[in-house]
Amino acid sequence: MFKKVVGIEPLDLIPSAEQKLHEYAEEVILYRDIPKDNQQIIERIADADAVLLSYTSTLDEKILEKCPHIVYIGMCCSLYSPETANVDIHYANENGIRVTGIRDYGDEGVVEYVVSELVRCFHGFGSDVSGNPEIPWDGVSREITGLKVGIVGLGTSGGMIADALKFFGAEISYFARSAKQHAKEKGYTFLPLNELLEKNDVIICCLNKNTVLLHESEFNHLGDHKVLFNTGLSPAWDMEPFQQWLARDNRCYCDTLGALGDQKLLEHPNVRCMQVSVGRTQQAYIRLSEKVLANLSEYNG
Q1: Which residues on neighbouring strands pair with residue 151, listed in sequence order?
Q2: Is-contact 41 8, C-beta < 8 A?
Q3: Does 107-273 match 2-105+281-300 at the fold level?
Q4: CA–CA gap between residue 292 and residue 288 (Å, rounded)
Q5: Are strands 148-152 and 202-205 parallel, antiparallel or unpaired?
Q6: CA–CA separation, 235 vs 238, rounded Å?
Q7: In degrees rounded to 5, what are phi and psi of residue 258?
């Protein structure tokens, strides 16, 4: 059992999970606002031996050096790699601090978002950023049936999006680090990135945070009258060639400003940005809570 668990910022845990935290520590302190700076993070941690955080704060080496009592850090958010984490995992490993994170808790909402926006785009439902009625993307209403869709990054989220769009009759191809047997068995075609960009009408980027694959050359291969989705936490592109591509006959969909990358683009006529994290649903909070508690339980033996 821990002596003291501190949640340094809002954690998105359901109430019953917050109560269950008391089974793992003699004292539990949960802060309901985001710390304003590193010094406030240090003050909140104080003598705690376990720290919980979400994705809005960072525990870097300078902070961890000043919090010598920490033995466990629970990330109540996605952890894919040390390079993309908001915790200095390398420092933690070198100093005997266990870091856990979670994955695959908000993907269902992302899938629903992509399907919803594709239907709106190709049927012309809703209105544009100026409030004018949308015009179907191809000028006339069409179905997802037969739509050529390229998935960039066929992890859990990308795979779920591919499966959903296949159900509606889309033709799926993908780019990943390597071809995947399970994708082949489903009829998905592996293509080099530039070929994927050229051959598909819709490109959906499902990449880890801070992973950029679309540079000037890739946008040249992508061409025009294309629809681009980014479901990641950060832009999948270099900003300058992206803006040049966006200025032509193209459209981009993102759920959050973080995925879009520039607030000025929110009013761009070819951008549709919800400014809502579509993976943060009632069900996602439950899955997140269960996985955070499972990590704590495993650490405590």
Answers
A1: 174, 204
A2: yes
A3: yes
A4: 6
A5: parallel
A6: 8
A7: -60, -40
Q: What is the mean pLDDT of residues 283-294?
A: 96
pLDDT in tens, 23-41: 999 999 999 999 999 999 9
Could you tell me if 17 and 292 are in contact, meaning their C-beta atoms sit under 8 angstroms apart? yes
Please list, in sequence order, all residues whose beta carbon lies within 8 angstroms of the beta carbon of residue 181, skipping any fewer than 6 positions away. Answer: none
Cβ neighbours, 10 Å, residue 41: 24
Class of domain 107-273: alpha beta
Count of residues making up the chain: 301
Question: What are 175-227's pLDDT values in tens digits?
Answer: 999 999 999 999 999 999 999 999 999 999 999 888 999 999 999 999 999 99
| 8 A C-beta contact, residue 123 and residue 70 | no
Q: Which two tokens stand for residue 199?
A: 């051959």
Domain spanning 2-105+281-300, CATH class: alpha beta
CB atoms within 10 A of CB 129: 13
Q: Which helix (DSSP H) or strand (DSSP E) does residue 39 occupy?
A: helix 38-45
Predicted confidence band of residue 301 (pLDDT cuts 50, 70, 90): low
The domain segmentation of the chain, as residue ranges, is 2-105+281-300, 107-273
**Are the C-beta atoms of 101 and 79 separated by less than 8 Å?**
yes
**Interacting residues of 105 by C-beta distance below 8 A, sequence separation 6+:** 78, 279, 284, 287, 288, 291
* pLDDT tens figures, 45-98: 999 999 999 989 999 999 999 999 999 999 999 888 888 889 999 999 999 999
**Percent of the residues in the chain that have a pLDDT greater than 90, as a whole number:** 89
Q: State residue 154 phi and psi, 5-degree precision.
A: -105, 55
Identify which of 299, 298, 294, 203 has the alpha carbon closest to the alpha carbon of residue 20: 294
